[in-house]
Design a protein that fits this description.
Number of helices: 8
Distance between the termini: 23 Å
Protein name: NAD(P)-binding domain-containing protein
Number of strands: 11
Largest sheet: 9 strands, mixed
CATH superfamily: NAD(P)-binding Rossmann-like Domain
Number of domains: 1
CATH class: Alpha Beta
CATH topology: Rossmann fold
Shape: globular
CATH architecture: 3-Layer(aba) Sandwich
Strand order of the largest sheet: 3-2-1-4-5-6-10-8-11
Strand content: 15-25%
Helix content: 25-40%
InterPro entries: NAD(P)-bd_dom, NAD(P)-bd_dom_sf
Structural class: alpha/beta
Length: 218
């Protein structure tokens, strides 16, 4: 069945890799949710649909962007160079609004790209500059888990821009490590392909197992 996926935060690095992966799959199509019209060219070239919608806007606007899709991937992030205010407005409030928009639009499948460790303990152990980000991700994850949505939460390790290897280690808990953003995009795609990931959360870093096999074994 051909599936249409709304990628929230599509202009981010993982988002771009994911839209490209979806469009190249031959089986699914992407709708890229971006903040500015000038970001659209990359996605137009891929043949993806585009929705210019700000994740800091209203739930109703995000729900409109989600009309007619089968799944939503939230991969938006405030980035490392913004303050605590943007962390709250994007990584927490933006995520919660997208979850609520999914419910309003009748979209049951939801994949959240989170932080590597979002347990309460991780907030306490994080450096002061990083703790607000972990806290935002923690509460966004908790909000999602308390819904009836068919969710999956992906906890990637340290993100790097090296080419993907196609090999990962994925489990509920793994040792800290790095992972290329390109590989994270392929992990997300395999989660969309595999209903056994519904209701699960897992950490993922570079490893020795092909991505498809790693996701199937969760």
């Amino acid at each position: 069945m051909r599936v249409k996926i709304l990628v929230v935060g599509a202009n981010g690095q993982i988002g771009k890799h994911l839209v490209k992966t979806i469009q190249n799959s031959g089986s699914h199509t992407a709708r890229a949710m971006i903040r500015k019209q000038e970001q659209a060219a990359y996605f137009n070239e891929l043949g993806a649909e585009v929705s210019v919608t700000d994740v800091e806007g209203e739930i109703e606007d995000i729900a409109k962007a989600a009309e007619g899709v089968d799944a939503i991937v939230f991969t938006a992030g405030s980035g490392p160079h913004t303050g605590k205010d943007k962390t709250i407005m994007v990584d927490l409030d933006g995520a919660v609004k997208t979850i609520e928009a999914a419910k309003a639009a009748g979209v049951n499948r939801f994949i959240m790209v989170s932080s590597f460790d979002t347990r309460r303990e991780a907030i306490q152990e994080a450096p002061p500059s990083f703790a607000p980000y972990v806290a935002a991700k923690h509460y966004a994850d908790e909000w999602l888990k308390r819904t009836d949505l068919n969710y999956t939460i992906v906890h990637p390790g340290a993100l790097v821009n090296e080419p993907g290897t196609g090999l990962v280690q994925a489990a509920q808990e793994v040792d800290r490590g790095a992972v290329p953003r390109e590989d994270v995009a392929h992990v997300i795609f395999e989660c969309l392909e595999n209903d056994s990931t519904i209701g699960k959360q897992f950490q993922v870093v570079t490893g020795s197992t092909p991505i498809k096999e790693a996701i199937q074994s969760l």
